[in-house]
Specification:
5 helices, 6 strands, single chain, four-stranded antiparallel sheet, about 15% strand, alpha+beta, two-stranded antiparallel ribbon
């Protein structure tokens, strides 16, 4: 059974939030950059402590290719849980300031637990991928640390959204809008 509910008269908005507006874009970018750098340092140090003493290979094309692939992969991984559960999710490109930006849009409202999986999917999947591949290919730890750290930096806003959503009532629904997120509850849950 697919649970998709369009926002109608039977739902009320419990909370609306916009991380970019609350924190400010500059502060969010600084926190994301600091988080990415911290993730890189910790990941690299923890993964090199495992005893690998061989040479590290470096290939600039492989490095740039892996960094460029993380950006669209992060967005696609947001859509994956929605697609797997039968919910509609659209991916499109829009013109950015310097380069095209990829967007994932999930129309309509979605149950809280499913939306939580949509929010954290890129962080969890790519972090586990980096961790697993580091044990398989320890000589590539610098690439995998960069992939993981870039993904973590992009996931900071997702983690902050998750923090808001996790505090919502258990049977709530979440709707994404342009620049904001709304947590909805049924009318009879208000009393």
């Amino acid at each position: 059974m697919i649970m998709i509910m369009e926002v109608g008269e039977s739902m009320n908005c419990w909370k609306t939030f916009n991380i970019f507006k609350q924190l400010g874009t500059t502060r969010l970018m600084v926190v994301s950059l600091g988080g990415a750098m911290s993730f890189y340092i910790l990941f690299y140090l923890l993964m090199t402590v495992n005893g690998y003493n061989g040479p590290f290979r470096f290939n600039m094309l492989l490095f740039l290719g892996s960094i460029i692939l993380v950006l669209p992969l992060h967005k696609l991984l947001h859509c994956l849980p929605a697609w797997l559960s039968g919910h509609e999710a659209r991916v499109y490109f829009e013109k950015g300031q310097w380069m095209p930006r990829m967007q994932c849009v999930i129309p309509g409202a979605m149950p809280k637990k499913r939306y939580m999986s949509v929010t954290l999917a890129p962080f969890v999947i790519l972090s586990l991928f980096s961790l697993g591949m580091t044990f398989t290919f320890p000589e590539e730890v610098h690439y995998l640390s960069a992939i993981g750290s870039l993904n973590f930096g992009m996931s900071v806003a997702d983690i902050l959204y998750f923090a808001h959503i996790v505090r919502a009532p258990a049977q709530s629904w979440v709707e994404e809008g342009p620049g904001h997120c709304r947590i909805l509850i049924k009318n009879h849950e208000i009393a």
